[in-house]
Write a structure and sequence with these properties.
heterodimer; A: alpha/beta; Rossmann fold; Helicase, Ruva Protein, domain 3; Arc Repressor Mutant, subunit A; five-stranded parallel beta sheet; B: alpha/beta; 3 domains
C-alpha cells in the first residue's frame, strides 16, 4: 500500500529499512504501483491562469503538462473573504452575479422557511454537499488575506519558474535546479530533500534561511496542518430565513488534535474524519480541498497541494478510531448528529428543537435535496452498522405526502393525537409525590461523595407511570445540571426485555461507559474492576453513574448471578453507582436469594394503580383545549378502568378507541350526506355509547359472538358438551360419548345425522379457536375435550338460536 | 341453444369461473361498498394511522377460512394505491418466525429489501433490533408507515415475547409511525400476552365470523353468474344464467346448501365447494346442473374412516369385531393375544370357514395398525413385543355396524355377533 510505504518513510526517527527512491528494484510486495510515488515527487503546483470564476473553483487538471512551467500565483479572484465578503441576497441581484442558486429543489413557499440547496455558488466558489473545504478559524483569522496558491522554493525562496518537487518528509517544495545535486527530472519513488536526509542520518545541515524581510507565505495546507485552519466536509447547505447561507459540516481533524497525538505511522497529509458535526456560516469557508480515501489518494497523481489523506474516523466522544472502509466506502454518506446510540436521545432532542421553529414538513424534504446527488455504490449491510445510522435518511428522500401537508385536523383527530401513548404529555399529573421521592434519592446519591449501597426498587402494575416518572425526573435533573446546579453525572438506561440475554447487560453498560464493544465476560471483568478495584474506564471516570434497569425481573438467571453482580457494585466503597430497578411484582426482592434481597430490598417505592379520579385527571389534562369528549364519558371510562386494572395506558387507549368510533361515524355520515349537518346531535362528540363500545372491545372476549355464529353442528356439539360435563361432573369428556349424545339428539329431533368424521372435524375447528380445548384429531374417538369458557357463557350464547329451537331444552 | 354451445365456449366459461374462485380480491369485492364490514373498519383504522401519523395495533380474530388475510390484503393493496410510497409492509408468520432472533432478522431483511439497503445475514440480533428501531424512527420522520403483519399471532405470544415488547414499546416511545396487525384463529390471543406487553397493546379487535346463509347465497350468485358483456356469446350467457337462477330457487338446492353450512360455513369452505361444482360442469353444454351441486356436496362430505372400513378383508373385520366385543365387556386393556383368544372362541362356537392361523392374524393386525383403525394404548413400551402391547379401537361400534351393513361380502355371522353384543 502506498500508505504503508510512505508511513515508514515519513518517520524521521525510525530507520527506514530500504533506501529511499528508485525502489523499483526492491518493491515490497504490497508497495503501490509507480503512479503513486510519482505523484509525490512531481508536485506541480500549478494554477493555470484561467478565467476568474473557473479559478475560484480550483478545478484541478487531471494531467500535468509535459513541460511544467507554471508557477503563477493566480490573479486574485481569491475568496479573500474579508474584503469581498458579501451576503448572499435572497434573490440573485445584479451586483452579485456569482451568487446564483442553482437547482433549488423546491420553490420557496414561505419566506420564513429554511431552504436547502444541493449546490451553492458563493463568493466565486461553487460548493456542493459532499465537498471538502477549508474553514477559517474565526478567532485566529490572519490578516494575510492572500492565500498563496503556489509555494516558495525552500532554497531560493521564490515561487514559480520551473518544476518543483515535494519532499516527502517535510512537505517543502524545491526547484529541481535548487537541489544539490540538481535533479534532471522528477525522481521516481519517495524522495526526501537533502536537509531531511541529513537530519535523518544524524548529520547537521542548516536549512537555508529566508532572505531578510521576506516572509514565508504559508499555503492553506500548511496552515491547516499547523491548525490555523480547519477542514470540513459539507453535509448540507441551506439558507436561513434571514438570507444568510449556512452549511452543516463535518469536521476533519489533524492527528495532533486527537487524544493520541501524532503517531509515527501518520502521514504528513493525513486527516481524521470526526463524528462531530457543526453549523457554520458559508462566509467562513475558504475554498475547496480534497480529502481522499487511501485508494483515491494513491491514484491521485498531481492533484495539487490541497490533497489530504483520510483513512480513519475519529470519535470525539470516546477518542477512538475506526477505519472508514469498515463503515462505508465512500465518505459521502451522512451521519446524523445522533451518532452514538447512547447519547442519541439528547442529541436528537436538540436537533428537533432547532427545527421545530420551522414548518415541520420542511425537514425531510430538505434532507432529500441535500442528499439527492449521492450514489451509493458499495455500502456495508445496513443492519450491521453497529448503531450508526448512515444513509438511513435516504428513506426520507421522497417528498412529503400531500395528505400530511394540507390536512386540517378536526377536534376529534386532535383528541386522538393527544391520547396517543407516544405523545409525551406536557405535565405528568398524579405522580408528584413519587417523583419527589425519586428526585431526592438521585440527588442525594449524586451529591453525596460516598454513595454506599444505593439502590431503589420501584414496583407497580403496568401502566402506572413508573418509567415515565423516572425519566421525567432525570430530564429535570439534566436541565438542573445544564444550568449548573448539579454535579455532572452519567445516566444509563437499560430495558431488561430488550436484552438478548441477561448477561448482555454487562456489554451494554460497558459500551455506554467506554464506547467499546466487547464480549460480556470481558465487559464484566472490566466493570468489576471499574466499580470495585477503582480502575476507572471511560473519561467520565469519577462521575456518579445512575443506572436505570427497567423490567428488572428479566435479569433473573438460574443462579441469579447477573442480579447479584449488578447489585453488588453499589456496595463497593468508591463505586459511585446508583441503581434504580423497575419491575412489576411487589415481592421480587423476597423471591430472590437472601444475599440479593439484602442488597436490593432496603429502599422501595410503590406505584399503586391509579384510582378513577387520577385517571380522569390524566385524561382531561391531555385533552385540555380540545372539545371532543363529554365529561361523563371520560368519567365512565376512568371508572371502568380503575375498577379493572388502574392502567393509564388502558384508559388512554379506550378513550382513543372511542374517539376513533366517533370519528368513523362522522366520516361515514359525511360520505353519505356529503354536507355534514352540524345540527346532528352529538355527532362530533365522543359519547357514552362510544366509550361503552370501546370497553366492550377491550375487555370482552369475542367468544360469545363466535359461538352464536357457529355452524349448526358446532352448536349442537357445544350444547352436548355442556350437557355431558354437567351429567358426569367431570372436567372433560371423551369424543365417543359426545358423539353418541349428538347422534341421539339429532335422531330425536329429526335432524340429518352428520358423519362421524365430520363431527370430529368440527371439534378440531372449535379446538383451533380455543372455544374448547382438545387433543389432536388423530386420537379419533379417544380424543378428550374440555370447555375453555364457562358453561354459562355457552348456555347464554346458544339459548335462543333461531336455527335450532330444540336445543334450549337440553341446556 | 345449450346443445349448440361449442366446447371452446364451455372451456372459456370454465376458466373464467375458476379464475374468479381463486382470486380472493374478486371473492371479497362486494365488501368494499358497505360501511359496516370488517373491510371498511380495518381500512379506516389503518388509513387513519397513515394519515394522522399515529401508532395502532389491531388483532384480527376469527376461525380459519373467514377471510382475515384476504381482507387485510385488500386493505393494504387499496392503501398502497391511495398513498404510494407511504407504506411499507413487513410480513411475519408465527409458524416461521416465532423465535425472536429469527423474527428480528427477518424484519431487518424485509426493511432492507424495501428500502434498497444491503443486508447482512451475519448481524447479531442486537444489531438487527437497533436497526429496526432506527428504521422506525427514520420512517416516522419521513411520514412513512411501517405495517407489521403478524400471521398466527398466537405463536408470537410464547416465551418472553421480546419481539412484541420491543415492537410495541418502540411504538409508544418514539416518533414512529407503525401499525401492528396480528392475525389469529385463537379467540383468546390477546389474553396470551404478558401483562407488560398487553398494557402496551392497543386492544383493537376485529372479529371475523362465518357469514350468514343469505350472505352465502349472495356470494354464490356473485361468483357463479356470468356477466352479459363478457367475451362469451350472449345467448350462452343468458341460457347459463337462467339455468343457474332456476337451480338457486330449487328446494333441493336449499337442502344442499343447508347441509353444507351445517358443518362449516366459512368462506373458504364455500369456495372449495364451488370449485368442485364448477369442476363437475358438463363440458358438452357448458352448463351447471343440480347434479353438479349434489355431487360436489357428497365429495365434500367424505367419511374417510368409513371408506377405509369398506375395503377391509374379512379377517380384519373379524379382528375389529373381536376388539369391539372385548371393549363392550369392559375389558380395560387387551393385547393381540387376548384378541386371538376371543377370535378362537368365536371360531369354536360358530365353526365358520374363516379360520386362519395366528401368523396370518398377526399380519392382519399389523395392517390395521398401519391404517390407524386401531392404536396402541400406551406411548412407551418400545422394548415390549408387538403382540403384548395393549391396543385400542379407534372406530366406534356404530361405524363398525354401519360398515358391516354396507359390506356385501361380509358373513352374516359377523353382523350377528355385533348385534348380539348390543343386546347383551
Amino acid at each position: 500500500m502506498a500508505a504503508a510505504a510512505q508511513m515508514e518513510f515519513s518517520t524521521p526517527s525510525k530507520p527506514t529499512p530500504r533506501r529511499k527512491s528508485k525502489s523499483v528494484a526492491s518493491p515490497p510486495p504490497m508497495s503501490p504501483a509507480t503512479p503513486s510515488t510519482v505523484r509525490r515527487s512531481s508536485r506541480l503546483l500549478e494554477t493555470p491562469a484561467k478565467d476568474l470564476s473557473e479559478a475560484a473553483l480550483f478545478e484541478t487538471p487531471a494531467k500535468p503538462k509535459p513541460k511544467a512551467v507554471l508557477f503563477e500565483t493566480p490573479a486574485k479572484p481569491k475568496p479573500a473573504p474579508t474584503l469581498k465578503r458579501k451576503r448572499a441576497a435572497p434573490s440573485p441581484s445584479p451586483k452579485t452575479p456569482t451568487q446564483t442558486e442553482r437547482k433549488p429543489k423546491r420553490q420557496r413557499r414561505l419566506p420564513t422557511n429554511r431552504v436547502y440547496y444541493r449546490k451553492v455558488v458563493y463568493d466565486g466558489g461553487e460548493f456542493a454537499a459532499g465537498d471538502d473545504v477549508y474553514i477559517k478559524r474565526l478567532e485566529g483569522e490572519e490578516s494575510d488575506a492572500e492565500d498563496p496558491e503556489a509555494e516558495d522554493c525552500r532554497v531560493c525562496f521564490r515561487a514559480g519558474g520551473g518544476v518543483m518537487v515535494e519532499c516527502d518528509a517535510c512537505l517543502g517544495g524545491f526547484h529541481l535546479r535548487c537541489v544539490r545535486p540538481p535533479l534532471r527530472r522528477v525522481p521516481e519513488g519517495d524522495w526526501a530533500c537533502p536537509y531531511c536526509k541529513a537530519e535523518h542520518e544524524g548529520r547537521a545541515m542548516d536549512r537555508p534561511k529566508p532572505p531578510v524581510g521576506k516572509k514565508i507565505k504559508r499555503t492553506a495546507k500548511e496552515k491547516l496542518l499547523a491548525s490555523d485552519l480547519w477542514a470540513a466536509r459539507i453535509e448540507s447547505l441551506r439558507r436561513e430565513p434571514d438570507g444568510a447561507f449556512w452549511a452543516k459540516v463535518r469536521w476533519y481533524t489533524i492527528p495532533e488534535e486527537t487524544a493520541a497525538g501524532r503517531q509515527p505511522h501518520n502521514l504528513r497529509r493525513e486527516l481524521y474524519r470526526t463524528n462531530d458535526v457543526g453549523d457554520i456560516e458559508m462566509e467562513t469557508i475558504l475554498r475547496h480541498c480534497f480529502v481522499m480515501s487511501p485508494k483515491e489518494f494513491r491514484d491521485a497523481a498531481n492533484d495539487g497541494d490541497d490533497v489530504f489523506y483520510c483513512e480513519y474516523e475519529y470519535d470525539i466522544h470516546w477518542h477512538n478510531f475506526k477505519r472508514l472502509a469498515d463503515i462505508d466506502d465512500e465518505p459521502e454518506t451522512k451521519e446524523d448528529p445522533s451518532d452514538e446510540p447512547y447519547n442519541a436521545a439528547d442529541d436528537y432532542n436538540s436537533d428537533t428543537d432547532v427545527d421545530s421553529e420551522y414548518d415541520e414538513e420542511d425537514e425531510p424534504a430538505a434532507r432529500c435535496s441535500a442528499r439527492k446527488n449521492q450514489s451509493n455504490e458499495k455500502i456495508l449491510p445496513a443492519n450491521s452498522w453497529k448503531g450508526r445510522i448512515y444513509g438511513l435518511q435516504k428513506i426520507g428522500i421522497r417528498k412529503i405526502p400531500e395528505h400530511v401537508r394540507c390536512h386540517q385536523k378536526t377536534a376529534l383527530e386532535k383528541a386522538k393525537a393527544t391520547l396517543l401513548l407516544a405523545t409525551l404529555p406536557k405535565s405528568l399529573p398524579c405522580r408528584d409525590k413519587e417523583m419527589e421521592e425519586i428526585s431526592t434519592f438521585v440527588k442525594d446519591a449524586i451529591c453525596n461523595d460516598h454513595c454506599l449501597g444505593r439502590c431503589l426498587y420501584i414496583h407497580g402494575v403496568p401502566g402506572t407511570g413508573k418509567t415515565m416518572s423516572v425519566l421525567a425526573v432525570m430530564r429535570r435533573l439534566r436541565s438542573e445540571f445544564d444550568s449548573g446546579a448539579l454535579r455532572p453525572y452519567c445516566f444509563i438506561e437499560i430495558n431488561g426485555l430488550k436484552l438478548a440475554s441477561p448477561e448482555n447487560i454487562y456489554k451494554v453498560i460497558y459500551e455506554q461507559l467506554s464506547g467499546h464493544r466487547v464480549g460480556w465476560k470481558k465487559a464484566l471483568h472490566y466493570l468489576t474492576q471499574h466499580f470495585s478495584d477503582g480502575k476507572k474506564i471511560g473519561k467520565q471516570a469519577n462521575q456518579p453513574i445512575v443506572l436505570l434497569i427497567d423490567e428488572l425481573d428479566l435479569l433473573l438467571t438460574r443462579n441469579q448471578s447477573v442480579l447479584y453482580n449488578i447489585l453488588d457494585w453499589p456496595t463497593k466503597p468508591n463505586s459511585n453507582l446508583v441503581i434504580i430497578g423497575i419491575a412489576n411484582t411487589m415481592d421480587l426482592p423476597e423471591k430472590l436469594l437472601p444475599r440479593i434481597s439484602s442488597r436490593m430490598g432496603i429502599q422501595r417505592l410503590c406505584f399503586g394503580p391509579y384510582n378513577y379520579r387520577q385517571l380522569q385527571e390524566i385524561i382531561t389534562s391531555r385533552l385540555k383545549g380540545i372539545n371532543a369528549f363529554e365529561d361523563q364519558a371520560i368519567e365512565f371510562a376512568s371508572r371502568k378502568v380503575a375498577a379493572m386494572s388502574g392502567d393509564a395506558r388502558r384508559a388512554l387507549e379506550i378513550c382513543r378507541r372511542a374517539a376513533e368510533f366517533a370519528d368513523y361515524r362522522v366520516k361515514q355520515f359525511q360520505q353519505v350526506e356529503q354536507t355534514p349537518s352540524s345540527a346532528n346531535i352529538g355527532n362530533g362528540f365522543v359519547c357514552m355509547g362510544d366509550i361503552e363500545d370501546a370497553i366492550q372491545e377491550v375487555f370482552q372476549a369475542p367468544h360469545i359472538q363466535v359461538m352464536k355464529n357457529c355452524p349448526k353442528f358446532g352448536k349442537v356439539i357445544l350444547a352436548a358438551m355442556v350437557h355431558e360435563l354437567y351429567r358426569s361432573g367431570l372436567g372433560e369428556v371423551l369424543f365417543d360419548k359426545l358423539a353418541a349424545t349428538v347422534f341421539s339428539w339429532c335422531h330425536v329431533n329429526r335432524e340429518i345425522l352428520p358423519g362421524y368424521d365430520t363431527l370430529l372435524k368440527i371439534c378440531c375447528k372449535l379446538g383451533e379457536s380455543k372455544i374448547v380445548l382438545c387433543e389432536e384429531g388423530t386420537k379419533h374417538k379417544l380424543q378428550k375435550l374440555q370447555l375453555n369458557y364457562p358453561s354459562d357463557d355457552v348456555t347464554f350464547a346458544l339459548k335462543e338460536s333461531p336455527d335450532l329451537p330444540w336445543l334450549s331444552k337440553y341446556l | 341453444m345449450a346443445a349448440a354451445a361449442p366446447a371452446p365456449v364451455a372451456g372459456h366459461a370454465h376458466a373464467v369461473l375458476r379464475g374468479r374462485l381463486c382470486d380472493p380480491a374478486f371473492v371479497h369485492s362486494c365488501l368494499r361498498s358497505s360501511p359496516d364490514t370488517n373491510y371498511s373498519k380495518l381500512k379506516y383504522l389503518v388509513a387513519s394511522s397513515v394519515s394522522e401519523a399515529c401508532n395502532n395495533s389491531v388483532l384480527l380474530l376469527g376461525p380459519r377460512g373467514c377471510g382475515k388475510g384476504a381482507v387485510l390484503d385488500m386493505v393494504l393493496e387499496d392503501l398502497r394505491k391511495e398513498h404510494p410510497d407511504a407504506i411499507s409492509v413487513i410480513r411475519l408468520n408465527g409458524m416461521l418466525h416465532s423465535d425472536d432472533n429469527c423474527a428480528t432478522k427477518e424484519i431487518a431483511r424485509q426493511l432492507c429489501l424495501e428500502h434498497q439497503l444491503s443486508f447482512s445475514k451475519m448481524a447479531s440480533s442486537d444489531d438487527n433490533t437497533e436497526f429496526m428501531i432506527d428504521m422506525l424512527r427514520e420512517c416516522g420522520l419521513a411520514h412513512k408507515t411501517v405495517i407489521f403483519v403478524l400471521e398466527e399471532f398466537d405463536l408470537f405470544a410464547q416465551g418472553k415475547q421480546r419481539l412484541l415488547y420491543s415492537l410495541l414499546d418502540a411504538m409508544q416511545s418514539l416518533t414512529s409511525q407503525a401499525v401492528v396487525i396480528g392475525m389469529s384463529c385463537r379467540l383468546d390471543a390477546d389474553q396470551l400476552l404478558e401483562k407488560r406487553v398487553r398494557s402496551r397493546f392497543s386492544h383493537r379487535k376485529l372479529l371475523f365470523v362465518p357469514s350468514s346463509l343469505d350472505d352465502i347465497q349472495r356470494l354464490m350468485e356473485h361468483l357463479l353468474m356470468l356477466e352479459k358483456d363478457s367475451s362469451l356469446p350472449t345467448n350462452y350467457v343468458t341460457e347459463y344464467n337462467s339455468r343457474l337462477t332456476s337451480i338457486f330457487s330449487n328446494k333441493k338446492f336449499k337442502g344442499v346448501l343447508d347441509s353444507l353450512t351445517d358443518t362449516d360455513a366459512t368462506t373458504s369452505n364455500i369456495l372449495r365447494f364451488l370449485f368442485r361444482v364448477v369442476s363437475y360442469m358438463d363440458m358438452e353444454s357448458g352448463l351447471l346442473s343440480m347434479e353438479c351441486f349434489t355431487d360436489a356436496l357428497s365429495s365434500m362430505q367424505r367419511q374417510p374412516k368409513m371408506d377405509s372400513l369398506q375395503d377391509l378383508s374379512i379377517l380384519e373385520l373379524y379382528i375389529l369385531v373381536c376388539m369391539n366385543r372385548l371393549e363392550d365387556k369392559e375389558q380395560k386393556s387387551y393385547n393381540f393375544n387376548t384378541i386371538i383368544k376371543e377370535y378362537k372362541s368365536i371360531q369354536d362356537a360358530y365353526k365358520t370357514s374363516d379360520k386362519y392361523a395366528t401368523t396370518v392374524c398377526f399380519r392382519a393386525f399389523e395392517h390395521l395398525l398401519d391404517r390407524e383403525l386401531i392404536t396402541f394404548a400406551d406411548t412407551k413400551g418400545r422394548n415390549v413385543a408387538l403382540e403384548y402391547r395393549p391396543v385400542k379401537l379407534l372406530i366406534s361400534s356404530r361405524e363398525l355396524a354401519q360398515s358391516l351393513n354396507l359390506n356385501t361380502t361380509c358373513p352374516a355371522v359377523l353382523q350377528k355377533l355385533l348385534d348380539r353384543e348390543r343386546y347383551m
